[in-house]
Structures
1.
Amino acid sequence: MMAQPLSSAIDTAFKSNIVPDQEYLLQGSVLDKVVEVLLHRLRGLCDNVDSGPEPFQDHEMCFTIRTTPTPLNLRVRRALDHQEMPWQLRYIGQPEYGDKMRPTIIRSSIDIGCSATVVEFLTELGCRMEFEYIARGYMFRKGRMKITVSKVFKMNQNKSQESMEPLSESYLVELSVLAPRGQDAIAEDMRSFAEQLRPLVNLDKVDFKRLVHGPP
Amino acid sequence: MAYSVNVAIEAPIENQIQEISYDGTEVYQQPLSMSESLSKLAAKIDFGKGQEEKEEKPNEKQEDEAAAKDPAAYQSSLWPWDSVRNKLKNALTEVCVLSDVLAIAKEKRYLVLDPVPQDPPEIKAMVTVYARKKALGGAAAVLLTGAERLRTSQSELVRNRSVPDFHLELLQLRKNWRLKKVGNSIIGDVSYRTAGSKFAQSGMFEVSKAEEDTPSNWSPPPPQSPNAGPAPPKTPSALRVTLPSELQGVAFIEVHCRKDDEALFSTTVTSASLNTAGPMPDMHWQKKLEAAQNVLFCKELFNQLAKEAVQLPGPIPHMVVGNQIVASILPGIQLIIGLRHSTSSNSKKSSGPPQQKKSDHDHVLEHSIHQLLREVHHKNTHHPFPHPSSGPLGPSKQRCLAGPTAVDRHELTEMSKSQTLLEQIIEQTQHFTMRRRTEYVLDTIAKEVRDPLIVSHWNSINSPTKACVKVNILTHGYDTICRTLLTIHVGKKSLKCICRDGSVMNMSYEIQELRDLLICQIHQHQITAVQALAKCMGWQLLSNSMHLGVGEVQQMGNASSCILASPIGDRLIAVRCEPQAGVHVSIAHSPRKDFFPSQLVKERKWENLGGSYKEVRWDKMEGKNFLNKMELLMASLTSSS
């Protein structure tokens, strides 16, 4: 009885463009040696200088299921340092790079909190785990913008925390905002914020497909 | 250089004159033949010239002698090549000797060559000292003139301090306040928006350069009120800060608690310095901006409270009239929150009354009312970070957990509820009133009742809406024998008392209930203390009743009593404690020592049944307090047996 009005409410919410399902994203990377400088600058630029950067350590698993025409990717993420928080199941759509004028990548993003049994659930559905990794770093906030500076580690077989093996000698820097469709003003804000980080890290629309197929 | 003239040098064509005769004819020398000229030139060759400097002195001397002899030798013209031959011969001799010496030296048997230590070139110490002295003197002179020039410019600056630099002051202003340049003007902002405020009113002000003639206005220093504390810097400023009219002046929020048209206490929310300083038209810009920020803060606070007062449903609706909010806290007690904003024009009129009321100024409530809005501001800017990090910013941890833990609608609506500022202030004021009342009751009872003593300890750790007091009832000198402990929790509208026996009494805000409870507890304490004392004295407790059903009906509570028997059982003491009437003590003897048979009681054995009680005139008893008197009484009755 509750289902009917609820689903229609969600429909109207989607129609009236109030659901924040678009992720505006800029990415970059910075070498281990200079990450301290970047963190220092971010502390100065972002909100809540008093509380300092928020550390995080997440474990992400990427599942795929064979659908036509393209396989569907689903990501399961959990906070290793906050075990009491719910896991997160997330769908990320195809990124739109747009032309040169568009400041950021836009991709649709839908996430939902779930319990730890989600892995079992997805496996039962026929999903297969493609890869998994651990991201450890700091996050910052500037208004609606979220900035994460994280290092990607390989997932060990014995799963011990101490002997984590880093994937590279650099940190991944991401600047993202989750907003309803059509709010392009925030993208401009992101560009101007990225400009302020410019000499330390070059935040840009990174096209991974071109990275994979292009010359090394 | 410019006048250089080319001069040709060549041998004269004429022959050299040998002699001039007396008649003036010149006898010319015959030109030299080729061989003669060669031999002459050969004689001129200085064979010693090619020799190294190391050549020994005697050699040189020899040569010199040879050279001195040369002209004579030439002139004598023994043989034109003679001198040349001599020189070559000498040279050969020297070379032979040298080669011999070298051959011997090479053997290292008879001769060893050692380098001759060469004397360092003589340094004239005084000369270098003088040279250095002179150079240093020159450098010092340059530095001194530079320093002198700096000093004069500095003193010039000090002399011109009365006209401060606009840009320096602007820099100072920029350190403390938000400024930006719009067009040709500099606009600043005093609002708390960056700190999380959502108040719509803007706190814009304009910074401009003060006119040149303004310093003359400052020269007579404005009369300072004597109680103003640290005087604001009197130096005129090159900056002028223009505030909108609604932010000018001084504002504060006044909080009264009124009980039946009389003020119980009042508090004014403003910093003390602002209250006393008063709005001066020529205040320093820092003070001016601080005052404006305070005005804005007070307006936001009042605006928020007024909005909540209108929306808040309650049994007695809150009233908002003009710049005043009236909210009822407890029956008969009202909380009045008023916004006082005095601009320079009407400053005298409105800053008068709050200064009179400052005598009962409550700093705790002032602080908490400030804190409430600051907390709201803080919450607006400090959102929790999502974990895992890919989650959206904003939802609280509770909201994040709501989905996976299947929270129902009721719990969700409970989650979204939050207390408004007004509700929190009302609760705090209610608690404040309750605490005051409890304090009052405890103090008056302690004053009224001298025996036993009532000691109350307030917990230093408390919250704005909860406090705890520990009441200790004890008799002076007998505190180790018996003490009655009570714990009273003071809440918002009620009191909770945990008694010695573990029973919990819940009381309302009517303070008479607490008073009654305490009086009952005091009398119960007397009875229990007597029993404990009796145990020490070796007396026996025959009966004990905390709620005695006999005797006249008490207005409040019940009388309590106990009956004690002396160690050998021949004396009895009965104690009756009434909350209103106090203590009655009676004694009885059994058996009586003297027995006179009467018609009714013929035998002595009947006396063991116990006789009639006789009341002790308690006020005539010796002793400092009730227990002391009891001890003396028991002692006297014991010793007599």
2.
Amino acid sequence: MRFGWRREVAGWHLLTGVALLLLCATISATGKKAREPKWWSIAKIADPSNLISNHIKSNSLTDHYLDPAIHRILRKKQRRLVRENPGVLVAIAKGARHAVHECKHQFRNRRWNCSTSSSNRSKRLFGKIVSRACRETAFLYALTSAAVTHTVTRACTEGSIDSCNCDYRTEGPSGLDWEWGGCSDNIDFGDNFSRLFVDAGEKGRDPRFPMNLHNNEVGRLHVKSEMRKECKCHGMSGSCTVKTCWWRLPYFRRVGDALKDRFDGASRVSVKNAGNARASNNRQRNRRRKNTRRRRRKSFALLKPYNPDHKPPSKKDLVYLEDSPDFCVRDRKLGIKGTHGRECNKTSIGVDGCDLMCCGREYHTRVIEVHERCSCTFQWCCVVKCKTCKYKKTTHICS
Amino acid sequence: MSFLSPSAPAPSSVMSMLGTKCIDKNYKNTQWYWSRGKQPCKSIGDFDSPIVEEQMISANHIIFSFQIPIPKDGYPLDYSRWQQNLIAMLHLDILYDDEDEVAPDAVMTLDARLGYSNRGDPEGQWTEYASSVEQRHLDCCIEQKKPGYMYNCSHVPLFELGSLHHDFYLLNVRLPVDMLDTSEKTGMNTKLGHINDMWVAFIHQNGGFTKVWVSLKTIFFPIIVAIMVWFWRRISQLSRPPALLEYMLMVLGAALTLLNCPLEYLTLAFDCPWMTVVSDIRQGLFYASLLSFWLIFAGEHLMDDIERNRIRVYWRHLSAVLGGCLCLFIFDMCERGVQLRNPFYSIWATEIGTNLALAFIILAGVCAGLYFCFLSYMIWKVFMNISSKRQSLPAMSSARRLHYEGIIYRFKVLMLATLLCAAMTVIGFILGQVSEGQWTWDENIKLEYTSGFFTGVYGMWNIYTFALICLYAPSHKRWPKDQNTQSSTGEEIEFSRLATEPSEMSSLTAFTKKSATD
């Protein structure tokens, strides 16, 4: 009985292998390898402060205004969005930088430490790993999408984007709306903008299209669900007969933490029928805003758990199609640097422990002298007075 | 009233704003710093910016600027006078740093200025509305004490404006510190940790809600005035002086008229910062007269044949109402009264103020408790008397029986109506609180319920008062003298109160009598 069951499992492995092969076949059939969305590299090109000065310099916001480098990385629809919403480009650039920063923080102790290419020559930001539809890629999509939602919402709250909508629900002359019922929360604009902008970076032909859309949506959803409600009572004599509540945007670290948790519990899926996705996408391309919702639902319906015994992924689960590589050794094809030269923690039993980090290889132990600031006195915002302390530190480095 | 509510928006809405960090090495407290429009201030994105180090920026050179309202849909919004009031709540984003933690009892000193400008003013011309240096307690906690994580700080009240008279407002807030080179060391703003951002949530009443509310008032105001005139004419036609209960009805009507008076129209033309205080007082007066009315009504229906009909008899009970209202009034004047002079003032900011405010509120609570004890005791007594009278009813003469039946009937009607109204108010309030509390982003459906509740409750109590005045007005019909009363001599003495009444009974009693005799 037991034996038979095991054989069944083995059978599953075989099936998996076949499925993987088939998947590779479809990818090669399309002729193109999946690449990371071009707009991500805005984090590399654009220094947000430069963009601000550019923005001030030119009052007319035509296509020519856009920096040629930015013009190149944005798709037509994205360029239109940037043109229509002055000030949004700075927010997107900041968002991309936040995403990189957050990713590096979340993965600082893992084999894959979210390395980015800093050179301007390479077109990609996170490297070739994105061409593989693995967990890490899923995380990157969700994180970048969340970061754009976050920074655009924040920019609206700061008043640096004029075109943030007052209300998505009612339509009419904006002045009257505002006087009658106030404005909805800025997260509505941030969420919608991110959906239009980030999802526009995806191509329907891509077999990974449903996966990417789903993960983008997961990112946005996490920004929303991390919002905290604050209330104020201001009824008669300050009593709670009248209570007004509002939402507070989370600090981006909280979103990063939540997404990292989802990364650990991501579910592997397979796409039901990629051909359908393409067809439906093409058909709906003309009808824009209404469709995003439908498109999303469609992409969601296309995903089914890879293991039929598992539950289908929820709206908040990250999904991936392929297993991750082990990131141990350098792999040019996938742009993996390997863990050679990485620092590890001898006492930890987690992924940052030397055994796991160095993939069973040896590691060198070195004692170095570190100069660090200590016994500091602070005065907000910016005055810090510190002493420099010297102490010895033992480091372990993978060979 | 409730039919208006689906179209009415929520009573108030919020515009949350992130402060722009303006920098000025030569800060002057006469200068304004704004972030949009012509010549915006020089600003930095965050405090890690290289500019900070280059120019040696310190806390005294940083001005958090809030220019409201924020433009939307590419259109510069302005506040409308229909939006009535403005409340600002401030919260700080403070990053954890193991060497620079936020002190548990940290006090921040805010140097805040509020200016205004109107459409048609030249751009950049701001007029000072109020300015003050205030202290606020910072209440922060943190779950994970790790660098890079954010403290969870509760918001603090910043200012309250009773009128939203101008189009644009500009708030400049500084968190000044002692200059390092001065000998003076007050320790001002030293234990605040790593402040990253300052947010202010601006709450204002919705114009749509004000419009619905004011139109309700405009409808009810003449109706209640008319019914009161009618009621008073009825009373003045009587040969006897008005009874205490009738005086109370007039007082109740007057208080409601005061509440109904659509004073809000004034705010459309004039700057009326006193409006919130006045509306608090108006509401308080109405509640006080309603509560007193219930007490006296129950007292007048005790049927224990003690001559009352004088306000002095009720002094003990009424002092509970008056005491409670006085406490709330003093508290209100300490908070919103002082805010007339300094909008940045908050009684909760200082230790003494907090204790004082709490003392007044607790005292008011005690008074409310006392009041409810009195009232429930009285109602219980009335019901006891009713049941004892019920048993002896068949043995009574017809006039006497009718008199008591009338009293019992009108007491029960009022009891039922009052309980119904009170229950609906309480249920509505609880539902409102619950629905507000459960509203999360995950469920996205939000039922707009609060404004329906407010308009509904307001209309209900108007109708309640209207009905009271209507039903308890003395009948203008002359009641034929009952011959039997003269013959039964044995009951003469007990009848002394009754003898004057039969001809001048309230219309409701008259109606019951009539149906009873039929």
